[in-house]
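Methods — Computational structure assignment.
A single polypeptide chain was analysed. Its primary sequence is given first, followed by the predicted tertiary structure written as structure tokens.
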Amino acid sequence: GATTVICSDKTGTLTRNEMTARRVVSAAGTLIAEGAGYAPEGALALPPGHAAPSPSAEWLLQCGLLCNDALLLERDGHWQVDGDPMEGALIALAAKAGLTHATVRATWPRLDEIPFDAAYRYMATLHRAPDGGAVLFVKGAPEQILALCGRQLGAGGEAEPLDHRYWDDAIADAAAAGERVLGFAIRHLETEPAALGFEHVGQLAFLGVIGFIDPPRQEAIAAVADCHAAGIAVKMITGDHGATAAAIARQLGIAENPQVVTGRDLDHVSDADLPALARQASVFARTSPEHKLRVVGALQ
């Protein structure tokens, strides 16, 4: 009876955490994947004039398949993910393009990895290439991956200068549609390093972005409405992209025009000024656990 504010995570709490990879953007354009859930069934709608995915799109799909720890399993006619839901969705997406999970992983054996961590917001895996040498695949928050890239993979698979505006627009379009967005990059190494270190995660070529849909829970929409009727404010605190979080917040009824504050914004707000900002904002995006504690402490 004394509750005035509820702060909630987004993925799996306000949304179903049932990912479907929907949008694939490479330098050659945008592919839209058909189908829903984790079933590896459905087609990839190609850009006009394309009979098959471009080399850049193929590298992007392969990166999503190899920089990946999940397994996709069929049980009693239903496809389920053993592991991270977004990684499972990437396996299903690759299958729609004709890439077989087991075959690709056997052809590109993993040598080493850097697991995902919220501190640096990416995952990297090192693989032995079939034709010799090694290849580093990286996936993570798109703005973080772009910051590690000096080039991009062109439509034909060649390296070319990075087009920041093109990628910023692609990320914004996907996020505005409520999609979660991952960025992907590659680096070819002439020799296999003895161990994969952070010093290798640089001089990358950006491959593209993939957008995932994760629909809101119907019961969460009703719960938000009940909270508002009782005079309880609801605030979303998530590690997701600000535009994605805002779109989901609108679908959930948290706010018609949600004010979004990012973790970077919070880093520049003093403890004295934070309570007023925390009351005004309804969405906190790209946050770390430390940011979450600061917001809740300020509201308390």
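Note: The chain has a mean pLDDT of 93.
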